[in-house]
Amino acid sequence: MSFSGKHAEYYDLFYRDKPYREEADYVLGLIKARRPGVREILDLGCGTGLRCLELARRGYQLCGVDQSSAMLAAARQHLAAARDILSADIEFLTGDITTFRAASSYDAVISLFHVFCYLTTEAALKQAIDCSFANLNAGGVFLFDYWHGPGVLKDPPARRTKAAENVTLEIIRTSIPQHLPDQHLVKLSVALNVIEKHAGTSYAAEEAYTLRYWFPDELERALQNSGFKNVQHYAWMTQSAPGPEAWQACTIAVKPTSSISFGKGNSDS
Predict the structure, then answer these.
(1) Which site in 43, 89, 160, 260 is 20 to 30 Å from 54, CA atoms measured?
(2) What predicted TM-score, i.e. pTM, was given to this entire model?
């Protein structure tokens, strides 16, 4: 899935209150507990790059990957405007989170803000996990977040309306979900009503997405089948396992320091 069109154009406006700083600290805390010497991080599905900028501000080398040219254009604009970050500390590349292969490997791979929810099949999930494994150094850490299945089933998605504005625009976004619990899918219809303040004109746009919520046990199996070890799950922004009420969760796993022919009975030594 690739954000394009109006969703990409107005993405930062709708999420300008997102606590990127606090989330960066949280993510780094989980990663450094498993790999204290982490220096280079690959962000799969980096979006408009603001998460990469926060991590770079803390002294890390970042590579942000996304398949949306519109999102990457915004990311590069943010980097150019950030006077406190050296452009050499961040690289933004076009790529798919299921197939991307970096020129060199990383100490950590992250994929956040529910990017993994746009992987709607177990085959796509395996490809993304294999991709992350391949891009990690031995002993590297993989962290991703997602909609937590038990929370979604307990509190199913509902119609939501959100407004955002700046000096030139006022936008109303209406999200209408169709829940398919037997498939663990949510089909989301998004309608945008945009008012251009100075011109006094307005227009509408519609986009549609399909998302999948995941369960920790199925994620754990997939990670272990791809060679990861030490899999742990957290309710997002906490140090606790996700309970049945948690909608947002994250999972973290480690690539073994040696993994010869994983999946054929060998273990890390």
Answers:
(1) 160
(2) 0.93
HEC readout, the chain: CCCCHHHHHCHHHHCCCCCHHHHHHHHHHHHHCCCCCCCEEEEECCCCCHHHHHHHHCCCEEEEEECCHHHHHHHHHHHHHCCCCCHHHEEEEECCCCCCCCCCCEEEEEECCCHHHHCCCHHHHHHHHHHHHHCEEEEEEEEEEEEEHHHHHHCCCCCEEEEEECCCEEEEEEEEEEEECCCCEEEEEEEEEEEECCCCEEEEEEEEEEEECECHHHHHHHHHHCCCEEEEEEECCCCCCCCCCCCEEEEEEECCCCCCCCCCCCCCC
57, 85 Cβ separation under 8 angstroms: yes
Q: Which of 108, 103, 98 is nearest to 45 (CA)?
A: 98
| Angle between helices 50-57 and 69-81 in degrees, nearest 10 | 40
- In this structure, whether the domain defined by 5-148+213-254 belongs to CATH 3.40.50.150 is answered with yes
The sheet carrying 61-66 orders its strands as: 90-94, 61-66, 40-44, 106-111, 136-147, 248-254, 229-235
Which residues on adjacent β-strands are paired with residue 162? 173
Please give the Cα distance from 12 to 47 (Å, whole number). Answer: 10
pLDDT digits (tens, 9 = 90+) for 95-113: 999 999 999 999 999 999 9
Distance CA 253, CA 221 (A): 12
CATH level 3 topology of 152-212: N-terminal domain of TfIIb (2.20.25)
Domain ranges of the chain: 5-148+213-254, 152-212
For the chain, what percent of residues have pLDDT higher than 70? 94
